[in-house]
Structure formats: C-alpha cells, structure tokens
Amino acid sequence: MYEMIKLKYNYKDLEPYYDSSMFNYHYNVLYKGYTDNLNKITNEFDVDRKTDNFTNIQSLSKRMSFNANAYILHSLFFENLIPMPNKTLLSTELVNHIKKDFGSYDSFIDELNASLLNIEGPGWVVFGYDKFLDKLLITQIEKHQEMPLVDFIPLLVIDVWEHSYYLQYKTDKKEYIRNLFYILDFNVVTDRYNKIYLP
Ligand SMILES: [Fe+2]
What we know:
single chain, mainly alpha, Helix Hairpins, minor pseudopilin epsh fold, 2 domains, 3-stranded antiparallel beta sheet, binds fe (ii) ion
C-alpha cells in the first residue's frame, strides 16, 4: 500500500511563493489521485497474477508507468520544498561534484533555468545522478509515462506541469520558476546525494 508523503510544512507556509489553495489542489486532488490509482493498479496486477490472466497487460503496464512515475515524482517534489526563511545549502561535496560535471556552479544553475523555461509543454525537470554513466545530469521529462533514463537517481525534482503553477501564475512560468527557487530544500537534495556516496 503506497501512501502520500507526510509534509514537513503547512500549505500556508509556502506563500507567497506557492499559493495554498493551488497547493491544496495539487496535493490533495492530483497527487492523491495518482496514489490511489497506483494502489488500484497494484491490486489489479495481483489479481492477474493469481488468476494467471494477462490479457490486459499492455494497458495495465501503461497505467502503471504513468501513475507510478507521477506518484514518485510528486513525492520527491513535495519533499524537496521548504518554507522561507530557507537557509538550506548544498553540501561542499555536492557543489564540487556539480562543478566537475557541469563546468561551474553558475553553468549548473543556468542549465537548470534553461531546462525549466524551455520544456515543451507539461513535464518535469529533474537533477540527478546516473549510476551507469557515473554523472550528474539535468533531464527534462516531458511525459512521465515514458521515463527516459533507467539508471537515474533523482536528487531535485521540479514540477512544471501547468497544474503546478497556473492557478497562481497563469502563463507566467518564468515568475513561478523564479519564486520556486526560494522554497527549494537543498538539505533534502544533499541528503539524497549522500545516500549514494556515503556508506
Ligand atoms: Fe504536479
């Protein structure tokens, strides 16, 4: 049974950067829907295995991919937010790794912003570590039912689906992105990184 992550902040605490009614809709309607669907689909898989009936496997796999990735990405996104005053920082080790793989920290931030602004349609921007390539990467995920990287560990997840900003920012995605940077929890990003590199 998959559960929605527990938040370490109240919706109101993210204002004015993230409107509480928009957050409520995002968390309690959309994210809850993906979580409920994931549990339902998991049960359907169990039934198919017990009855040895896999006639619906294609649609079931597609629904699983869409809802499981929506559940994972939203869980990570809500987890890597924090209210102001936000005093979180990336660790020195992670910053040094970023400098090695992106050339400089400024290049990393520029690439992150460019990825967020230029994603085609709805989607996600994820900064993470690819184990197979042994490299930190920023990737755009335009359709999360078609997760493009298979050995990729997300460190920072940013939702740029329209539903994540439209109620407050309308079409001003740039302003949403600018304000979102105030409430990103870099301690969480560092913790996720440490789980890869520290014993
Ligand atoms: Fe979302």
